[in-house]
């Protein structure tokens, strides 16, 4: 059992070191030697767990998916409507980008040609399905305007959040990603939410998210 635990920890350290390198340099420019130095593992240990740099990158993507699933699978608190819960999940995603190197690496990797398929099949797809489910519920319960297509709402939201994340990296401005993500959602809701929901939201604001946060 002790040997298995050491192997698990070694693998996790290699994945985290790889995520750090991929998040900084992308897939092509990432250095296996730098990953080894960061993980403090031996080359033999790395190749015991991963046969290639591509396999290592896919392990990072899989770990990121597990992080996304952990966020999306948290039970919604009683009394929180679909749009409020969507807001909370978005805040958790923003915090994960800030705090978790694996999540940052996933965002960098999926724009590489080798991993384009992960956009449709990976962590982003997990988030997209959850967002669409909540948008559909919001539409059915009158939180969105009757003429709004939940698929359009989801598509615009997901694209806007990805753009905010990309521009934050591109400009290297010291801007809180939580604020940027919240801005994207609020602008969209001002255009697409029902008047009744907006009137209530303008008075009450968003529920506290700290009480329903998840470790990532």
Structural summary, described in words:
The chain is mainly α and 216 residues long. It has one domain (60-212): Tetracycline Repressor, domain 2. The protein has helices at residues 2-29, 32-39, 43-49, 53-72, 82-99, 101-109, 118-121, 123-140, 150-171, 177-192, 195-204. Helix 1 (2-29) crosses helix 4 and helix 1 crosses helix 6. The model is unreliable at 211-216 (pLDDT under 50).
Terminal CA distance: 26 Å
Low-pLDDT residue intervals, each spanning 5 or more residues: 211-216
Q: Indicate how many domains the architecture comprises.
A: 1
Q: According to CATH, what is the class?
A: Mainly Alpha
The fraction of residues assigned to DSSP E strands is under 5%
Subunit arrangement of the protein: single chain
CATH homolog superfamily: Tetracycline Repressor, domain 2
Structural class: mainly alpha
Radius of gyration equals 19 Å
Q: Helix and strand string, N-terminal first?
A: HHHHHHHHHHH
Shape: elongated
Gross CATH architecture: Orthogonal Bundle
Might you state the CATH topology name? Tetracycline Repressor, domain 2
**Which bin fits the share of residues in helices?**
over 70%
Helix tally equals: 11
Would you tell me the overall average pLDDT? Answer: 90
The number of E-state strands comes to: 0
Largest sheet: none
């Amino acid at each position: 059992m002790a040997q298995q635990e050491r192997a698990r920890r070694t693998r996790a350290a290699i994945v985290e070191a790889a995520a750090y390198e991929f998040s900084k340099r992308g897939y092509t420019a990432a250095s296996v030697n730098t990953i080894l130095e960061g993980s403090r593992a031996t080359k033999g240990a790395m190749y015991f767990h991963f046969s290639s740099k591509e396999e290592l990158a896919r392990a990072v993507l899989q770990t990121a998916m597990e992080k996304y699933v952990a966020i999306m699978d948290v039970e919604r608190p009683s009394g929180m409507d679909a749009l409020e819960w969507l807001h909370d999940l978005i805040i958790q995603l923003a915090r994960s980008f800030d705090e978790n190197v694996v999540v940052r690496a996933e965002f960098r990797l999926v724009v590489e040609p080798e991993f384009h398929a992960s956009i449709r099949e990976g962590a982003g797809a997990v988030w997209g399905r959850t967002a669409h489910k909540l948008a559909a519920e919001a539409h059915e319960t009158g939180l969105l305007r009757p003429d709004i297509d939940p698929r359009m709402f989801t598509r615009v939201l997901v694209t806007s959040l990805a753009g905010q994340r990309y521009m934050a990296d591109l400009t290297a401005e010291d801007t809180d990603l939580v604020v940027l993500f919240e801005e994207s959602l609020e602008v969209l809701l001002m255009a697409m939410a029902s008047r009744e929901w907006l009137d209530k939201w303008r008075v009450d604001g968003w529920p506290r998210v700290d009480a329903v946060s998840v470790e990532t």
